[in-house]
Q: What sequence folds into this?
């Protein structure tokens, strides 16, 4: 078999198949491989007219079909399946060849794989790919990490198949070494969780407090999508809310089960933030909200608990309230992105990745699930000040938050008074208020810790240490020595 394919894709489920078709549509010869050969031949039979495909049935045939340096894209499930594919193909490759993992791998696994393959002279690229099935086919946002040398060969191909922002810029960049690409994709998904939760809370407020129907809320979201909230998620929310179930004639949102899954990336974002000491409370609340939704027995047992019932507003009150919800949604959205970019910056510092936050914002402007108009302004903020400590430190965003905060607070008051759960909105406002506070109750927390753990507290003055020791001896119950 001649080695004429410029790139190869192994793992031809929907994402892998669509990515292979994207490469072919953009003029690249694509070698195909799948554990089940029938899927490979089915792709060629159905979509062979879209470009130059080379179907292979064995690992050796697949590798032989690739030109040097070989570029081999893995599109299989994260974890052990990915390791198994690497172990199958790595012995067939030569120094300078590259393996590109396009799945949702944990960045720590990517760092390990990159280190192990580097010893064999093989470049390993962990590439986060966002945009779902449609993005894979028509242009995703791509977040590749790995050796910079690999991007010199692979980058132009990824740039060609990627989504393009409105200014024509490709939505792909070399994010950084080893696991940087998958780390950024992880945080992207965490922000996605928060964004979807906030939109869900806005919907519930508009329905339960303002009294709007799903169809009316769809129109409100369409209006919002023409302004500063312009984004893919707002756009599709309007479509979902306007959809009617054919079987029942009811709004689709009233028929679908109100239980949402939470997969690895959202959970990982929160876990890694804890390891890094970065507060991502909005993302965490979104993950927990999905978890709570799945505890059907607990929810059923708790429905009789005391609390207020929401009462609909008058037409004029509802319209004014909808404007307030827009303000609260926008302000909370800014906080979610602020927390996400803080985690990216902390990860970059921890692992010495030197990630360009402006470039990350730039490649999220198209193709990915969280693409939004205001990412242009985030990019501009980081381009103007690369070491910006927080998006809330940017003058423009700070002014917008200042303008929104009265309505933001009013929405939360209404939510509490009428018993509508808004953990995302509340967490975002609490984060904002904590940042701007002159003093935090952490001083009291530290005093409590000093009381029962006096040893090894370097900042505690001796006189305070003596006083607390005396008081601890007088305490009726001796507390544990550590927390």
A:
């Amino acid at each position: 078999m001649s080695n004429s394919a410029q790139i190869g894709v192994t793992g031809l489920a929907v994402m892998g198949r669509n990515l292979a078709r994207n490469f072919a549509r953009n003029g690249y010869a694509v070698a195909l491989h799948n554990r089940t050969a029938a899927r490979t031949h089915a792709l060629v039979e159905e979509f062979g007219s879209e470009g130059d495909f080379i179907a292979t049935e064995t690992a050796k045939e697949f590798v032989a079909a690739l030109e040097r340096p070989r570029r081999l894209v893995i599109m299989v499930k994260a974890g052990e399946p990915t390791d198994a594919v690497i172990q199958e193909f790595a012995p067939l490759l030569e120094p300078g060849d590259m393996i590109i993992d396009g799945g949702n791998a944990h960045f720590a696994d990517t760092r390990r794989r990159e280190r192990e393959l580097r010893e064999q002279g093989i470049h390993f690229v962990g590439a986060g790919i966002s945009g779902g099935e449609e993005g894979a086919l028509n242009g995703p946002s791509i977040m590749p990490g790995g050796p910079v040398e690999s991007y010199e060969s692979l980058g132009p191909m990824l740039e060609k198949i990627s989504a393009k922002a409105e200014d024509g810029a490709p939505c792909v960049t070399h994010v950084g070494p080893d696991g940087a690409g998958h780390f950024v994709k992880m945080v992207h998904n965490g922000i996605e969780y928060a964004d979807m939760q906030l939109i869900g809370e806005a919907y519930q407020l508009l329905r339960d407090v303002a009294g709007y129907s799903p169809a009316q809320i769809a129109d409100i979201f369409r209006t919002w999508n023409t302004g500063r909230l312009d984004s893919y998620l707002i756009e599709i929310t309007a479509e979902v809310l306007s959809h009617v179930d054919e079987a029942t004639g009811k709004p689709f949102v009233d028929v679908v089960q109100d239980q949402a899954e939470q997969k690895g990336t959202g959970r990982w974002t929160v876990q890694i933030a804890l390891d890094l000491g970065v507060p991502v409370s909005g993302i965490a609340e979104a993950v927990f909200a999905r978890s709570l939704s799945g505890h059907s027995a607990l929810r059923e047992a708790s429905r009789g608990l005391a609390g207020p019932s929401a009462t609909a507003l008058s037409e004029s009150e509802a319209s004014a309230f909808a404007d307030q919800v827009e303000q609260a949604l926008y302000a909370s959205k800014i906080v979610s992105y602020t927390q996400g970019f803080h985690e990216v910056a902390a990860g970059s510092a921890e692992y010495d990745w030197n990630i360009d936050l402006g470039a990350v914002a730039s490649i999220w402007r198209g193709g990915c699930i969280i693409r939004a108009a205001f990412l242009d302004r985030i990019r501009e903020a980081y381009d103007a000040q690369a070491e910006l400590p927080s998006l809330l430190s940017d003058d423009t965003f700070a002014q917008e938050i200042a303008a929104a905060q009265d309505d933001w607070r009013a929405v939360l008051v209404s939510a509490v008074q009428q018993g509508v759960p808004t953990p995302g909105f509340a967490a975002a406002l609490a984060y904002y208020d904590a940042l701007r506070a002159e003093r935090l109750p952490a001083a009291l927390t530290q005093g409590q810790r000093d009381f029962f753990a006096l040893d090894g507290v370097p900042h505690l003055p001796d006189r305070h240490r003596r006083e607390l020791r005396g008081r601890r001896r007088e305490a009726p119950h001796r507390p544990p020595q550590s927390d």
Remarks:
- The mean pLDDT is 92.
- The two ends are 65 Å apart (CA to CA).
